[in-house]
Write a structure and sequence with these properties.
Blueprint: E1 7-18, H1 57-69, E2 73-74, E3 77-78, E4 81-84, E5 94-97, E6 104-105, E7 108-113, E8 116-129, E9 133-135, E10 144-146, E11 153-159, H2 166-183, E12 195-205, E13 215-220, H3 223-242, E14 250-255, E15 260-266, E16 276-277, E17 284-285, H4 288-296, H5 302-313, H6 317-323, H7 327-337, H8 343-361, H9 372-383, H10 389-402, H11 407-413, H12 422-435, H13 437-444, H14 451-461, H15 468-480
Parallel strand pairs: 13-14
Antiparallel strand pairs: 1-11, 1-12, 2-6, 3-17, 4-5, 4-16, 6-8, 7-8, 8-11, 9-10, 12-13, 14-15
Bound molecules: adenosine-5'-diphosphate and magnesium ion.
Adenosine-5'-diphosphate binds next to strand 1, strand 11 and strand 12.
């Protein structure tokens, strides 16, 4: 048995997020995923001699947005450097990156961990260009290269070595993905590689002020795999320590087939990239006014919005967390609550039927705005007891979305309006009780749970029209008489 308790894991994460700009970081080539190979490749992307790059201002703006959202300091003076190395997917022979001058310095991302709110400290967020893609599995004899991705703008979000568990790393990456999507600067799609994470992991004896030797696990293409890789590495490193094997600094890769990692190369600390400022790109200065304007245009961030939802609408924490997962969802909730004061009911509708409907139909919130007044009217019909919730959220909801129309008219026309008429309800009760004399007997002998069965049958018989409150009262009276 390993004595895990003696040790503390230390984790630092590097997340690469592809910025959702239409064009690349230094030229006008398109950035979209899934195009035919080598179709978004101008001479600039391919690094032909004599070509001149030009910085994409949108990418700079997106990086600043992320920095401000994380409370970073934004560097006013910036330049790009060349990081020189040879690799087949790097057509220029160097990557343009920010070496010693990241555009965003410090900052933090807060996560809601098992032991409460934690601030994960950031070291920096810098801009750089992506490389092309080597494809090893299409030809048995050759490696193929697709340069479409080369030059796509990335931000690299680097934490301090301040995480201590796979679980916290999982929550942190989830939070970062939520944030970039919220800001609209990256689609966060890990399967397509828009968001990629490298995990640096070391272990040390608890209380030891010095960090242990780290390994870096690359190619983590899902948040679940990040967690698995870290869990595996922590255990492996502790095992090495316990058995007296020296840990060497390594770059490793995750094998998703058996949830393990394997070494790709031993990493020398002093890679000589011969950094120097790119002479083709002018250094750029960001004015305070420019940064302030970006800050002023930032949307409310999830954590700020959570406080508002608690204060203004007094929703349960679960609802608040759910509504603040996606900006489009939060925005639509806020739009609903401008039109109705049934705040909790609106939250239930959002998390339940509205979400389900959009999932099933593969559509987004933008197509619901037109129907918003009708959705509010529908919600209020349920609140007033005019419509049964399951009828309202199923049949009526999809009808008023598919063809804009008043839910009252629709429900009336289709004879769905719930009735409180005791005569009508008593008739249904009578019928159901007559159909189940044995159950009535059991109920009278004390099996009170059967009330649910009767209610269900009445609901079916009345096609959801029997008002549940009145029905329960009448049914109980009838059964005890
Ligand atoms: P590189 O660019 O060579 O990967 P950095 O110094 O930029 O190196 O660090 C990368 C990441 O590794 C950062 O997130 C940092 O917090 C983390 N890190 C550095 N040292 C350790 C360590 N001993 N244990 C765990 N993480 C570490
Ligand atoms: Mg690294």
């Amino acid at each position: 048995m390993l004595d895990m308790g003696k040790y503390e894991a230390v984790i630092g994460l590097e997340i690469h997020a592809q910025l959702a700009t239409a064009t690349k970081l230094f030229c006008g080539d398109a950035t979209g995923f899934g195009a035919d190979p080598n179709t978004h490749v101008s001479p600039i992307t391919l690094g032909h001699p004599g070509t001149l790059p030009k910085t994409n201002v949108k990418a700079v703006e997106y990086a600043i947005k992320m920095g401000l959202a994380c409370g970073c300091t934004i560097a006013e003076d910036n330049y790009f450097a060349r990081k020189n190395y040879f690799y087949p997917d790097l057509p220029k022979g160097y990557q343009i990156s920010q070496h010693t001058t990241p555009i965003c310095v410090g900052g933090q991302v807060s996560i809601n961990s098992l032991s409460g709110l934690k601030n994960i400290e950031l070291n920096r967020i810098h801009l750089e260009e992506d490389a092309g893609k080597s494809i090893h599995d299409l030809s048995p004899t050759h490696t193929l290269i697709d340069f479409n991705r080369a030059g796509t703008p990335l931000i690299e979000i680097v934490t301090e070595p301040c995480l201590h568990s796979a679980e916290d790393a999982f929550l942190y990456v989830t939070e970062v993905r939520k944030l970039v999507r919220w800001l609209g600067i990256c689609d966060g799609n890990m399967e397509e590689g828009s968001l990629r994470c490298d995990a640096n992991i070391s272990v040390k004896l608890k209380g030891d002020p010095n960090l242990g030797t780290r390994v870096e696990v690359k190619n983590l293409n899902s948040i679940r795999n990040i967690k698995k890789a870290i869990e595996y590495e922590i255990e492996r490193l502790i095992y090495l320590k316990e058995t007296g094997v020296d840990i060497i600094q390594q770059t490793r890769s995750f094998d998703a087939n058996n949830d393990t990692t394997f070494s790709i190369r031993d990493k020398e600390d002093a890679n000589d990239y011969r950094y120097f400022p790119d002479p083709d790109l002018a250094p750029f200065h960001l004015t305070k006014a420019y940064i302030a304007a970006i800050k002023a245009a930032l949307p409310s961030l999830p954590n700020e919005l959570k406080i508002v939802l608690k204060k203004t609408y007094d929703l349960p924490d679960y609802d608040i967390d759910q509504l603040c997962e996606h900006k489009e969802e939060a925005d639509f909730y806020l739009a609903l609550t401008k039109e109705t004061t049934h705040y909790k009911a609106a939250a239930n509708w959002m998390i339940g039927p509205i979400r389900a409907y959009l999932n099933e139909t593969g559509t987004g919130y933008e197509m619901l705005y037109e129907a918003l007044p009708n959705i509010v009217a529908l919600m209020e019909m349920v609140e007033k007891g005019q419509l049964n919730f399951s009828v309202a959220s199923g049949k009526v909801f999809s009808a008023i979305i598919q063809a804009p129309q008043s839910p009252i008219e629709y429900a009336t026309k289709h004879n769905l309006i719930q009735t409180q008429s005791t005569d009508e309800i008593e008739k249904w009760i009578e019928e159901i009780l007559n159909e189940h004399p044995d159950k009535v007997l059991e109920y009278k002998k004390g099996k009170k749970g059967l009330i649910g069965l009767f209610m269900g049958e009445i609901k079916k018989k009345s096609q959801g029209k029997a008002d549940p409150k009145t029905t329960t009262q009448l049914l109980e009276k009838k059964l005890t008489s």
